[in-house]
Amino acid sequence: MNGKTFKSSMRARYLKQKLFFGAVRLSALLITLALFGILAYILANGFRAITWEFLTQPPTDSMTKGGIMPAIVGTLYLTVGAILVALPLGVVSAIFLTEYAKQGALTRIIRIGVNCLAGVPSVVFGLFGLGFFVVFLKFGSSILAGALTLGILILPTIIGAAEEALKAVPQTFREASLALGVSKWNTIFRITLPSALPGILTGAILGVGRAAGETAPIMFTAAAFFTAVLPKSIFDEVMALPYHIYVLATAGTHIEETRPLQYGTVLVLIALVLGIDLIAIVMRSMIRRNKRW
Amino acid sequence: MEKDFIIRTKNVDFYYGAFRALSDITMDFEKNKVTALIGPSGCGKSTLLRLLNRMNDLIDGTRVEGEILFEGRNIYAPDVDPVEIRQRIGMVFQKPNPFPKSIYNNITYAPKLAGIRESGEIEALVEESLKQAVLWDEVKDILTKSAMTLSGGQQQRLCIARALAMKPDVILMDEPTSALDPISTAKIEELIDTLKKHYTIIIVTHNMQQAARISEYTGFFYLGKVIEFNVTEKIFTNPDVKQTEDYITGRFG
Predict the structure, then answer these.
(1) Which tens digit of pLDDT belongs to each residue from A246-286?
(2) A41 phi and psi, to 5 degrees?
(3) Which one of A159, B202, B204, B240 has the fewest beta carbons within 10 angstroms of its own beta carbon?
């Protein structure tokens, strides 16, 4: 190859590289733009609805005026409930899969099952919750039934994140602990699990977003069309933000009139999810600061 | 004088699945002496070491045949709890592996779980272990700092202190200085020399001079078998087997 063709082929390669990096940059930019576009649109349309009354009062005048306080409280209960159900169950399952079970046919089948569960449409979870929790276990349409249904819905997310987090803990930590004559149980609970906690919290964050935003699973299991009173026990129905938005946008008598309220409710839902996530993120960074390796 | 053997292996075979990693290992380890295990990579010396405190239990699909007697009791008998064995037979690994905890908590972690609760006793244990590992003077003012802030050599001495805090009878060392600089290595070798008064030490090493310097007995391994096992001086000056001589003089391995 003479010098000239070498140079031109270098130029062609350089060009190709530029093109490729350009494309990569563009896709990253597009995704960010889409996200900010949605947020800006909601903010622009919704911020006028946000008033003190909106946040602290129940809806009035057939839900065309007033606030969304019962729905905020309801979603908060349902989301926290779902996490309380899914986090312990998911973490324990992940511990079984990564620390205890012999890797083989059984763990493979469980993992396939978990992945399938992740792919099931959310309305199916809703119907399952209706059939099992609401009717069969006689919980009725309630916070308990809704939180359990949402808990199962986010279980695959939590298990997946917890498994990855546990696998990322260096094997040398486990060996060091076991070699000191510490039992497997104590090794898991005092060394492995604390080291995996940041990753597990990431899973919880993803779970919160999903649980707070789902409509179909709570439609039949927990959500009330309208109630001005706050729940007194976990066997009470609640209003919930996603369902409230659905109702206002599709089933109300004044759909166009309540548009600002709909956007306002969406904005509150996003803020609520962000708020819960923020708690988890702060916790995570605090733990990370203490556990560096 | 009758020799006191703390660990004896009898015709030990070890398999990873179908692969036979160790064949017919019969060795006696004398109490309060340093025994070095040498040999080329993959010869099975680390595998044997990890058999002695049942660390190979952690690997799926392995199988042990023969007997490993610790103070006369087969540690692979069905009624033996590996946790108890590991409390009596400690281990130091190739790479320093302190926990992401404070220096103090690295030491107290295992003794506390083993049931030592009284705070005076625990504090005394921390000081004693760190002094034994010749680390006390360097860390006595920073006990609450993370162990991860120590240098590699200090971390390894902390790992030794951590093992000593369990007051074991035997300490297994798997190439404890291979990740360290020469000065840290010298410190650890000195430490091993003082520790053998109270502990039996079995050390795997790739460093021939190290084996010659610190051990009373040396076992040469090749392809999963013990080729020669004898007093260190004999192995290094006048070995019986040609293979041993070839390895020691650097002709292969």
Answers:
(1) 998 887 677 888 888 899 999 999 999 888 888 888 888 88
(2) -60, -45
(3) B240
**A26 and A93 fall within a common domain:** no
Question: What's residue A228's pLDDT?
Answer: 78
- Same structural domain for residues A136 and A168? yes
Say whether A177 and B110 touch across the interface (CB within 8 A): yes
Q: Look at residues B108, B94, B101 and name the one whose alpha carbon lies nearest to residue B164.
A: B108
Cβ of A179 within 8 Å of Cβ of B55? The answer is yes
Name every chain A residue with its beta carbon within 8 A of the beta carbon of B110.
Answer: 177, 180-182
CA A133 to chain B, closest CA, distance in angstroms equals: 40
Interval B148-184: pLDDT, tens: 999 999 999 999 999 999 999 999 999 999 988 999 8
Q: Give the range of the structural domain holding residue A285, as residue numbers without chain letter.
A: 52-290
Mark whether A226 and A265 lie in a shared domain.
Answer: yes
Same domain, A89 and A216: yes
- Our CA-based measurement puts residue A178 at a distance from the nearest CA of chain B, in whole angstroms, of 7
The ipTM estimated for the assembled molecules is: 0.91
E runs forming strands in chain A: 59-60, 65-66
How many separate domains does chain A show?
Answer: 2
Cβ-based contacts of A191 with chain B (< 8 Å): 99
Judge residue B76's burial from the number of C-beta atoms within 10 Å of its C-beta, 0-12 exposed, 13-18 middle, 19 or more buried.
middle
Are residue A151 and residue A103 in the same domain, yes or no? yes
A76 and A174 inside one domain:
yes
What confidence tier does A157 reach under pLDDT thresholds 50, 70, 90? very high
> Do A79 and A7 fall within a single domain?
no
A177 vs B109: CB contact, 8 Å cut-off?
Answer: yes
